[in-house]
């Protein structure tokens, strides 16, 4: 698990500074591709969430209207109803 500065908490070996970190261009490209896919999935989930939120808002408003109509039919005062 990385620390607050992004370090892995592993000791640096003597003479390891300046050496290749073990990752080549192919590994970085693969990681970048995976991050792009994750980003696309998150964007898609955000769109679905926004759509569901809008639909739930519509349903809530519809239910409020229906409740008010029922209360009016029963002769109740809508202001007496609990929210």
Automatic annotation (TrEMBL):
It comes from the Eukaryota. Residues 1-25 are annotated as: Disordered. One of its GO terms (biological process) is multinuclear osteoclast differentiation. InterPro entries: BBLN_eukaryota. Pfam families: UPF0184. One of its GO terms (molecular function) is molecular adaptor activity. One of its GO terms (cellular component) is subapical part of cell. This is Bublin coiled coil protein. It comes from Aotus nancymaae (Ma's night monkey).
